[in-house]
Amino acid sequence: MFQARGLSYTYPSSRIGIHNVTLEAGPGERIVVMGPNGSGKSTFLELVATAIPSQPETLSLFGESKRTATRALRKRIGVVQDQPVHIETLTGLENARLFSELYGISPGETDNTLVDLFAALGLEEVQNIPVSEYSYGMKRKLLLVEALVHKPELLIVDEPTLGLDPPSQAALLTILENYSRNGTCILIATNDMILAQHLATRIVFLCEGEMIAQGSTDDLFAKISGNTRIDIKLKEKIVADLTLDEFAITAMPGRILAESNSGMNSLPRLIEAVLNSGFNIAQIDVRETDLGDVFTYLTGLDIRDNNEWKMDS
């Protein structure tokens, strides 16, 4: 569906967006791009969506080299950006129908699809209300409807769960899995760990514009040694020089991340070693490892933000 070969982009200010990214994806794949703010996630998505031009021969879409978009090409792509853009005086349903017509679909052809999408995302009761009265979360849901109404071959979504409540997040996961089963290639930028682990067939890590790793969740978890993560925050804002045989330790200023296969049984020994080294502990968190821990292990940086995705139990 797309193939990037050494894809790079530098902004007019000389800031590097991404550099030398090589990645390809086929029908039905679900690619999740992860990285801290400024890592190049949105830039990469905008390039693949042809929202910004790429360098010659560095990007192919549907088997053809493309730098900029054509109308025919964009009919095959669905895009959800991080900010809603609608005609506020139109109702939600009118906006969605307008998008379907812009994609070249005759009025009425998408009615059944729209009924299903509005219902799945909890918008059926407000579909005939002007978008000016929608909350931010409703507008985000409507963006998803508009991007999916024409059943795109390639779906590109920036921060898919932003503004969505847990039931809508779970509904979105089901929708994306269904579209994927029908052949849609999905490219998503998000740092939601649980969403990524549930959805992705492949994870891509970006850092400072460069791709540092890619693979399935199993591939990436194999890069770290333990399945229990102990996160110790220190009162001293320095890097602790600490080594213990049973732990894989990553030290950052004021913080120690330790991975262990021994679970909680290893915690007392680690605490004792930290205190004996002359450090004071401010906080301890123990949990199972996730993709954020893999990213930290590879880069020494923290990928986390405050937009965590949660599934209903």
Provide a brief overview of the structure.
It contains 10 helices and 14 strands. With 313 residues, the chain is of the alpha/beta class. The longest helix is centred in the middle third of the chain and has 16 residues, at 166-181.
Supply database-style keywords.
single chain, 313 residues, alpha/beta, 6-stranded mixed β-sheet, 30% helix, elongated
Helix content: 25-40%
Secondary-structure content class: alpha/beta
Shape: elongated
Q: What order do the helices and strands follow? A: EEEHEEHEHHHEHEHEEHEEEHEH
As a percent range, the share of strand residues is 25-35%
Q: Major sheet: order of its strands?
A: 6-7-8-3-9-10
Report the total helices. 10
Find the count of extended strands (DSSP E, 2+ residues): 14
Q: Please report the distance between the alpha carbons of the first and last residues.
A: 34 Å
Mean pLDDT over the full residue set: 89
Main sheet attributes: strand count, strand direction, barrel closure: 6 strands, mixed
Write a structural description:
The chain is α/β, with parallel strands linked by helices and 313 residues long. Helix content is 30%, strand content 26%. It is built from ten helices and 14 strands. Strands 6-7-8-3-9-10 form a six-stranded mixed beta sheet, with helices on both faces. A four-stranded antiparallel beta sheet has the order 2-1-4-5, covered by helices on one side. A hairpin with a 5-residue loop joins strand 1 (2-10) and strand 2. Helix 3 (92-102) runs parallel beside helix 5 (136-148). It is elongated. Mean pLDDT is 89; it is low at 305-313.
